[in-house]
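Structure first, sequence second, as always.
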């Protein structure tokens, strides 16, 4: 009796874990609006926290910036690993409950199906549906992540184009008075209204993209003294 209750409890845990992980994937990669996920938030906070903790040990800002530039991409990889790991565990728990096999065998079959290796798949009819779902889940998650990257880095590139162009106008790091001074020196004050309009559009684009894909906030500019938030502040000061 105790064993049956334990199996049921593990099955319920596996189902809840499966739903929570699927919800995290959908909210992060599919829904085109702000949709927070506890799993995604924990991975991001944990990864960024570790990088910031290590970064404090570097006295040189360029070295610290070089380290922190890896935080965003590492968070992406961490999300993929955590999602696949949670799906592997949840399908394993469901298989263990469905067939009554030991947890080690269930996890081996779950991993075999999830990564479409097929070496541990058996012919038991009770597990056929779970094997098919697990086999579909792995490629779907990886495919969604691959499709997510062009959108993410497309928004990053749009952000950085204007920041790079501002460097010759406002120096590095960008400074509002420097922007005005150079416009005077180069006799380009009449071009300021166009600059304001460009940066108003840039701010709207960044606001939308960085709200929808909050991971973009952690992806740093390509040079240590170049920062998109500081660039916007310089334009606003000017």
């Amino acid at each position: 009796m105790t064993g049956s209750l334990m199996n049921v409890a593990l099955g319920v845990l596996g189902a809840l874990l499966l739903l929570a992980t699927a919800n995290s994937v959908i909210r992060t990669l599919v829904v085109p609006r702000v949709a927070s996920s506890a799993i995604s938030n924990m991975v991001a906070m944990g990864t960024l926290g570790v990088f910031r903790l290590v970064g404090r040990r570097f006295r040189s800002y360029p070295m610290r910036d070089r380290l922190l530039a890896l935080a965003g991409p590492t968070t992406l990889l961490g999300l993929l690993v955590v999602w696949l790991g949670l799906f592997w565990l949840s399908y394993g728990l469901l298989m263990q409950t469905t067939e009554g096999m030991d947890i080690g065998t269930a996890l081996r079959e779950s991993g075999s199906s999830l990564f479409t290796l097929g070496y541990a798949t058996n012919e038991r009819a009770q597990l056929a549906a779970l094997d098919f779902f697990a086999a579909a889940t792995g490629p779907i998650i990886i495919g969604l992540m691959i499709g997510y990257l062009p959108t993410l880095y497309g928004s990053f590139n749009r952000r950085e184009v204007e920041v790079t162009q501002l460097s010759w106008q406002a120096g590095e790091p960008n400074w509002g008075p420097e922007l005005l001074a150079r416009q005077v020196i180069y006799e380009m004050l009449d071009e300021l209204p166009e600059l304001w309009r460009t940066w108003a559009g840039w701010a709207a684009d960044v606001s939308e993209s960085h709200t929808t894909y909050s991971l973009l906030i952690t992806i740093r500019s390509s040079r240590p003294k170049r920062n998109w938030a500081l660039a916007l502040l310089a334009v606003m000061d000017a």
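Margin note: The mean pLDDT is 88.
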